[in-house]
Amino acid sequence: MLYYLFTWLDKTINLPGAGVFQYISFRAAMSVITSLVIMLIFGKPFIKWLKRKQIGETVRDLNLEGQKEKEGTATMGGLLILTAIVIPTLLFAKLDNIYVLIMLGTTVWLGMIGFIDDYIKVFRHNKEGMPGKYKILGQVILGLSVGLLIMYHPDITIKEKTTVESYVATHNINVEGNYDKAKNVMSQNPIKSTKTTIPFVKNNELDYAKIITWMGDWAQNWVWLLYVLIVIFVVTATSNAANLTDGIDGLATGTSAIIGSTLAILAWVSGNIIFANYLNIMYLPNIGELSVFITAFVGATIGFLWYNTHPAEIFMGDTGSLPIGGIIAVFALLIRKELLIPILCGIFLIEDISVILQTSYFKWTRKKYGEGRRIFLMAPLHHHYQKKGIKEEKIVTRFYIIGILLAIISIVTLKLR
């Protein structure tokens, strides 16, 4: 909203300084500051209000150290996180940008699902919350919608890399003198594409249509179905993995802030034709506007960490954890970096895998030996380390360090091929 106001002021009355709103870097900086301010100013009053309303966490007895002290801690803090994401985005982003609209829709949709789940737990006193099949259904609907929008919305395009020689020949440009024929430039016209980025590969682009080339002429007709299924899987898996990671104070929040900061860098370079050309990566027109959204996300998660570090004053609940995972997944899909998720979101991945392994192995051994056996002392993985007697704060800090390392590796993939 402020973007349009200051653009109008700049053009009509030439207001000094109003033109700075044309720069994504300025609006992204204002977005993260605004998000942080919202969290820091309203965090404490919000926690007090939740306590007055007796909106507190019901903790299952897992026989973990310090677990009982968490009973009654204010929950549903995800409402504050979502507010701190949405308000700065509405203030500083271009609201006619399809990428921004998709991210806002993702935030609100998964926030609503998470809120319903928390409402059932807190107010209906049902520890199970919303049945899992309905959560999955909501994630599938989101994945289906996002996948179809990426496939068919006219504003979601890429510009392909080509050589100077091809560019000159295609556009009938008369060039005198020598030029570097091997140098990559961006094509003039944006195109619809199902291409994505493969990390650590020299020619690092994969067209999903090539996966089904065995279908012959039908490949282009059915690639939309393959792509939508991939989007649904990425959204569902990442959202649920973030939900599993939210098990000890500050773990999901801090890890998400690290991931969000990395995504901000990737969006920035992908949406800047100079950086995209220099790094020899896919250029995505208008994607840079997502920097405003993701910086609000980073500000919200860091601000929430102020109150969520051990001992936590507030938990985000599913109102926060489900949207956080979904936001990361959809954002990665939009910037064509979804294949980086196993690296960048390695903490989420290992938490998810630990639960899958534990459950599968327990069921298999119970069927084979008559009694279930476990790989870990407890799943998800952070509880395994708690069972080993490692302090909660140390587990979280070590996971942060691993998360930062994975973030650096993700950024390095821009050039390391």
* Overall pLDDT metric: 89
Please tally the β strands and state the result: 4
Shape: globular
How much of the residues is beta strand, in percent? under 5%
Q: Within the largest sheet, what's the order of strands?
A: 1-2
Radius of gyration: 23 Å
**How would you sum up the major sheet?**
2 strands, antiparallel
Give the helix/strand class: mainly alpha
Number of helices: 15
Compute the number of structural domains: 1
* Poorly predicted segments: 177-182
Helix content: 55-70%
How far apart are the first and last residues' alpha carbons, in Å? 41 Å
- Provide the succession of SSEs: HHHHHEHEEEHHHHHHHHH
Blueprint (SSEs and pairs):
Blueprint: H1 2-12, H2 24-52, H3 78-92, H4 98-123, H5 132-152, E1 161-163, H6 164-170, E2 184-186, E3 195-197, E4 205-207, H7 219-245, H8 251-270, H9 273-279, H10 290-308, H11 317-334, H12 341-344, H13 346-369, H14 381-387, H15 392-412
Antiparallel strand pairs: 1-2, 3-4
Helix pairs in contact: 2-3, 2-10, 3-4, 3-10, 3-11, 4-5, 4-11, 5-7, 7-11, 7-13, 8-10, 8-11, 8-15
